[in-house]
Amino acid sequence: MRISNWLANPFKLNALGILGMNERNSRYIAQYNDRHLYPLVDDKLKTKQLMLDAQINVPGLIATLSHQSQVQHLLEHLPKNRGFAIKPAKGSGGKGILVIINQHDGLYVKTNQKLLSLEQLQHHCSNILAGLYSLGGNPDVALIEELIEFDPLFDGFSHEGVPDIRVIIFKGYPVMAMMRLSTQYSDGKANLHQGAVGVGLDLATGKALHAVQFGKPILEHPDTHKPLAELTVPDWQKLLILAARCYDETKLGYLGADIVLDKKLGPLVLELNARPGLSIQVANGCGLKPRLKQLEKIQHRRDAEHRVSYSQKHFTAKPDFDAIA
Ligand SMILES: Nc1ncnc2c1ncn2[C@@H]1O[C@H](COP(=O)(O)OP(=O)(O)O)[C@@H](O)[C@H]1O
Ligand SMILES: [Mg+2]
C-alpha cells in the first residue's frame, strides 16, 4: 500500500480504516480513558512508581530536581563517569530530553558526541523546572535517569540512540505496534516528530512490515543503510504481554505503551500515554479502525496472556516492503 498516496484524501482514509484525530478523541479517548486516571501517565515519576508497584521494570531513577535552588548542586545528583538522561516529568514527544552517553574531563558527551558543560546542564534543568517543555507550560520536575543501553541486536537499526517499541492497547488487547529508531536527525531520541524512523511490526511475529520517516515510506535506515525488512523483535509475545499488563495496572482503555529493550535488564516500560499519536498507522501502512471496532464488540474479561493470543491470531499482516521498492 502506498501511504503517501492516500494521506491527502479523507474518503480514502476512511475506506482504509484510518482513525483520525477527532474520532480518536471523541470515540476512544473520551469514552475509554477516565480523566482522573490521566495523572498516572502524564507524570513520568508517577508512572515509574505504578510500574514498580506492579513489579514491572522501568529505567532506574537516579535523582529528581524539583526546586531551582537544587540546580546549583546538580553535580552532587549526577552519576560519576557514566551516562544518564535528563528529562521533564511531564514532557512529551522527546521535548527537553537530554541523553548523555559518557563523561570526559568534566564535560558531558551527548549521543552525537557533542560536549556540554555542567553549566549547560544546569541551564537545561532550570528550563525543565520552569516548565519550558511541559504540558501547559506548568512548572515541572527534572528526572535524572539511568542511561538505557539498548540490546546489541538492534545495532545498525538505530543511530546514536535507544529505539523504543510503541504498542497501542485497547481494552487491554494489543491492536498495533511499531518500533521507532533514532536517526542523526532525531538527536538520540526515538520520537517520530524529531525525525526518527517508524517501523510497523506484525503482532503475530514481531517482524517489520513497513517503514517510514517524516511520513514517507523507506526501505533502509537513513544513516546506517541497514535494510529495515530484516528487523525482528525477539521475545515478542512476552513483550506484548508486558504491554497488555499496563492496561491492568492503569485501567486506561486506550493506551500507548512505550517499551525499550535494555541490554542487561531486558524489556523496560519507558512511558505510558493516554493520548497516543496516530502515525503508528502510517508506520504500519494500515488503519486502526477495523481492529478497534472488532474489539469494541468483545465483552468478556480475560488475562493479559489470553488477550495477547487473541490479538496475535486476529491482527496479523504481511510485509509491505516489496510494494515500495
Ligand atoms: N534513560 C534513557 N536512556 C537513553 N535514552 C533515553 C532515555 N530516556 C529516553 N530516551 C530516549 O528519548 C526518547 C523519548 O523518551 P520518553 O521517556 O519516551 O519521553 P517522551 O514522553 O518525550 O517521548 C526515547 O524513545 C529514547 O530514545
Ligand atoms: Mg516517548
Protein model, in words:
The chain is of the alpha+beta class and 325 residues long. It has two domains: 3-57 and 151-324, D-amino Acid Aminotransferase, Chain A, domain 1; 61-146, Dna Ligase, domain 1. The chain is built from 13 helices and 13 strands. The protein has helices spanning 3-6, 10-15, 21-32, 38-42, 44-53, 68-71, 74-77, 118-129, 236-250, 280-284, 289-296, 304-314, 321-324; strands spanning 61-65, 84-88, 98-104, 107-110, 115-116, 142-146, 164-170, 173-181, 197-201, 208-213, 216-217, 254-262, 266-273. Strand 9 and strand 10 (208-213) form a beta hairpin. It is globular. The model has no long low-confidence stretch (mean pLDDT 93). Residues 258, 271 line the site of magnesium ion (MG).
Q: Tell me the span between the first and last alpha carbons.
A: 12 Å
Give me the side-by-side strand order of the main sheet.
Answer: 11-10-9-8-7-12-13
Number of helices: 13
- Average per-residue pLDDT, rounded, comes to 93
**CATH architecture field of the largest domain:** 2-Layer Sandwich
Using DSSP, what is the number of strands?
Answer: 13
Q: List the secondary-structure elements in sequence, H or E.
A: HHHHHEHHEEEEHEEEEEEHEEHHHH
Radius of gyration from the alpha-carbon trace, in angstroms: 19 Å
Low-confidence stretches: none
Query: What structural class should be given to the helix and strand makeup?
Result: alpha+beta
